[in-house]
Amino acid sequence: MTDNFEYVRDSLINDIETLKSKDGFLYAGFPRFMELFGRDSLISSMELSYLYPQILKNTLIALSKKQGTQYNNNTGEEPGKILHEIAEKNSFKNNANKEEWVKSGIPMYYSIDSTLLFIIACEFYLTEYNDIEFLNLIKVSLENAIKWLLNKSEKNEFLTYNITETQGKLASQGWMDGAWEVYNGLSGDIALIEIQGYMYEALEKYNKLFPENLFYNQIEDKLHFLKKNLDKYFWMGEENYYSPAISINDGKKERIQLITSNAGHLLFTGLLERVKKESIVKRIFEDDMMTPYGIRTLSSHSSKFNPCQYQSGSIWPNDNWMILKGLKSSGFTKEADLLRSHLIDAMITLKNPYEYYSVDIDDNIINPDNLINKPCSPQAWTVGAFLSILDDKF
C-alpha cells in the first residue's frame, strides 16, 4: 500500500506541472479546459495551498486582473464579478467541440460562485501567510467583489442568478453546471443551496479580516438573514435534508425535491447549527449516496439518476473534497476517515486523476471510456483533491 501511495503521489505532482500555466496558476483540465477558470482554478489552488501557496497567490492575481468592470449581457460580466472561464487559443485548438458561446480570449462570467470562492481564498491566503504586499495589491479587488455580492443579493436576499443568463449555455451557474437533469424546469431567479453557504462564509471572513470596513453592518444583516431564513425555504422536512435549489418568481419560492450532494458543501461553513449538520451527514452516508469510492452527486433512488451522466449520479473528487473538508472542520472524525479511505481506494483503482468517475448500482467502477461525456485527465481540482487526501491536509 505504501508503494501505491508513493506512485500515485509522484504521478499527481507531475500532473501539477502539466497543468501549470506560464503565469503560475493551474489550468482546469486536459484536454478540454486548458484555460483559466474562476471556480476550478480557485478550488484546485486551495486544495494545494498547503504545498504550493504560490499557486494560490498567482491564481488570485490572475483572476483579479480579469475582474468585471461593466455590465455586458453577451458575456455575463458585472462590476466586481470574477470570471467563469477565459479560453485561450490552445484550448480551442485541442477541443473542436468547445461550446459555441465561449469565444477565444474573451472572459465569460457565467458563474455565481467564483466571486465567493475568490473572497474565501483571499481571506485564507492573507490569514495564513500574512502577506502585506499582497493585501495592498488585492484589497480593491476584494472590496469590489463584496460590492458585487451585496448588490447581487439585494433583490431576493439570497444570492441568485436569473435563468435567462444561463439558458442554452450551462445547466446552472453553480459547480454542477452540466447537471441538466437536476436543474431542468427551473425558471426566474435561482438560488442554489451551496451558494448560500459560500456567501455566508465569504461575508463572515471579510468582516473578520476588515472589521472596520464600510459594509460591516450591511454584512451582519445579511448573515443574520441567512441564519434565520435558510431552513424556511430550502429545508425538505420529509427528507430531513436541504433542497439543491429554489426558483423565485414574483416573490414565490419553489424547491427542487431532489437529494444531491450540494448540501454537503454547507458543512465547511458557519451557516448551520450542529443538528442540521448531523442531518446532512446522516443522509449523504446512506447507501443511495455513499459508495465504496465516494459520494454521488445525485441519489440512486432518483428517477433522474444516471451514473454514466455528467453530474446526475457520477462521483466528483472536488465535490467529495468539499464535503470531506466540512466533515473534518465540523468534528465528524469517524465519517471523515471513512470517506477519505473510500477516495483513496478510488484513486488507487483508477490510477488517473479523472474529472469525474462513476460507480454502478452494484458498486463497481464504470470504465471511464463508457461515460457519456469523456472525463478530462488530469483535472486540476481532482489532482488537488487526491493529493491533499493522500497527505491528509485540509
Describe the protein.
With 394 residues, the protein is an alpha+beta fold. Helix content is 45%, strand content 7%.
Per DSSP, what share of the residues sits in E-state strands of 2 or more residues? 5-15%
Distance between the termini: 22 Å
What are the low-pLDDT stretches, counting only 5+ consecutive residues below 50?
A: none
Query: Strand sequence of the main sheet, in spatial order?
Result: 3-4-7-8
State the shape.
globular
Number of strands: 10
In DSSP terms (H or I, runs of 4 or more residues), the helix count works out at: 13
Mean pLDDT: 94
Helical/strand content category: alpha+beta
Largest β sheet strand count, sense and barrel closure: 4 strands, antiparallel
Radius of gyration: 20 Å
Which bin fits the share of residues in helices?
A: 40-55%
Q: What order do the helices and strands follow? A: HEHHEHHHEHEHHEEEEHEEHHH
Task: Furnish the topology, listing elements before pairings.
Elements: H1 2-19, E1 36-37, H2 39-47, H3 53-65, E2 85-86, H4 89-93, H5 114-129, H6 132-152, E3 161-162, H7 180-183, E4 189-192, H8 193-209, H9 216-234, E5 235-236, E6 241-242, E7 245-249, E8 252-255, H10 274-284, E9 290-291, E10 294-295, H11 317-329, H12 333-350, H13 380-391
Antiparallel strand pairs: 1-2, 3-4, 4-7, 5-6, 7-8, 9-10
Helix pairs in contact: 1-13, 2-3, 2-5, 2-13, 3-5, 3-6, 5-6, 5-8, 8-9, 11-12, 11-13
